[in-house]
Amino acid sequence: MISNEFKENVNSGNVFTIRSALIDYLIMDTSFKKFDEAIEYTKQQHIEILEPFSESETDSIEQNSDKWTNDYLNRQKCGLIDNFSLERIEHLKKVIKKVFINEHNTEETEKSEKEETIKDNNKKKESILKQIFNCIKNEIRGFNNLD
Question: How does the average pLDDT of the chain come out, rounded?
Answer without folding.
Answer: 85
